[in-house]
Amino acid sequence: MSSAKKSKSAPAIRTIVQLVLKNDTGDSFYRMRWPAQELARQDGTLRVINLSAEAKERKDWALSADLLVLFQSQDLDLLPIIEERRKLGRRTLVEYNDNFYEPAPWSPVAEAWSSPLLWQTYETILNASDGLIVTGPGLAELFASRTAIPIHVLPNYYPRDLPPFAQHPAKPGTEINVGWAGSLGHMADILSFAPNIGRLIADFPQSNLHLMGNETLPSLVHVPKDRLRFKPWGSMDQYFEFWLPIHIGIVPLLDTPYNRGRSDIKAVEIAASGALPILPDTLIYRDFIAATGVPTYRSLDEAEEILRSFMANPEKVRTAAERAYTYVRDRRLQSADSERLRLYSSMFPSTEPASASWPVGVGAHELDGTPELETETTRVLKSVQKQWNEKQRQEALAEIRSASERSPSNIEWSIAALRLTAAARDAAFPTLLQSHVTRFPRDLRAFLLAISVAEVQSRLELWKRVLQRLASDARSRDFFRAEVVRLALLDLVRVPGFDQVLPALGQLYPTSPEIHLALGELLERQGRFEQSLAHFDWLLRAMMLHEQGKTFFSSVDQGYIKAWGATLRARLRSNEPLDSSKGAVQAATKQSP
Predict the structure, then answer these.
(1) Which of 286, 304, 328, 479 could form a disulfide with 196 if both were Cys (CB 3.0 to 4.6 A apart)?
(2) Is the Cβ–Cβ distance between 83 and 536 less than 8 Å?
């Protein structure tokens, strides 16, 4: 019998697969890339794979991973995978790090996020998962009204280690450098404070303004050219370097639902550079303010007064900046973050890791995988449409119904099955409609489809229900405007009593020329000539404005106009307190479905 001692078995290697958007944005680094590196550093038994969310391998790897993490996902193909993982005792986390219901109208994502259909997709994936990650209390409050799954707040952490403040390079010279940096989504925030900045730079000859952002920014902030230092928006390294010469970092923030869902990373970045952040007294910065005692403001005029006080006393700036810097160094560095590791570890299955052939070993890895040119959801929809166009209608119906039964949570397959069943005048339509509405109660497409196929005598009641929904949901009202108006004009001539709901449509769509014409003609037939004339006069004015302004309006972005509207309203209220008492849920759900 051998006396050799048995060696201890090696610790099990756990695999975390994160399906990510690999780009050079702050979100990509802060939420996906830097945390993956830190997880692998903290636990040498972890294999952390950041795989492109568009890779073919995502399904197989997602199924086999001990933990699957999805970021801002709208991939309906993953729904059966999430369900299968649950059956196998493997859990899935999702992260949504923006209030996608209420983006700033001038933001590059505003058009994409204006779609209630996209919201439904996000919500479907969110509610199919085992937990939601958000970046701060604003989003936690918002999503708490949307989902029953656990919500975990994982704040952003600064990616670089910092020396003690005494070893930090002193800010150069005797000048006072005031700085601001932000993406296009922050444009109205900085413009709202532009007059205050102009006065400050004029009143303090030793001061300069440093800006980083969109190329149009210097022309919109009225500061002498010799006192303005501008850098266009660049890489994360360039962004961190931008802050190094800054003494005071300003963070103007309009009180909007989208801004209330942001993280506090701007304050962390400013403080990490050795500068003093001047912050609004809002929910997202409350913890940072409590920990550092940095100065806060409740109105734009108050922010100006705080800046005046510090610009007149540079030593006071350095003392306050040191407190904020020390907080970041002690508590907000990526290397000190153990929250994510604890959360991820708590989500691992109780069983041994699944046997799978992974192409990489322990550590953090960023892999592109094999690009998938077409998702399964898209492929099935195209196949079904092709069969339908080629008159193979029973085959098309069979394929789309089979797909929908295979993945009942796939809203696009479900609505496609409903539409083709309606088009085929199949007797299964009422059953499929009820099933769809039960699973997706806020999908207005199903109600509009029901109107289009209903018997004439029952349409009026359906219309009343739809109009009630539209009256309480401005975003869906705008999104479905063309379809609603088209259906309404058809039913005006074929549904008895439809003139009862036409005025309500006019109130919902006061700028619809089609509705104005229909109302004008209806009122004329009723002998109400004066009211009819008002609609025809409106149409004439609209036609003249369109003719005179079509060249101009085709060259001006609507978001630009909205940004100036928000900017000027904030300036007019410059001495009014920020309305930080409103919760993100109250504000964001006011116009959301």
Answers:
(1) 304
(2) no
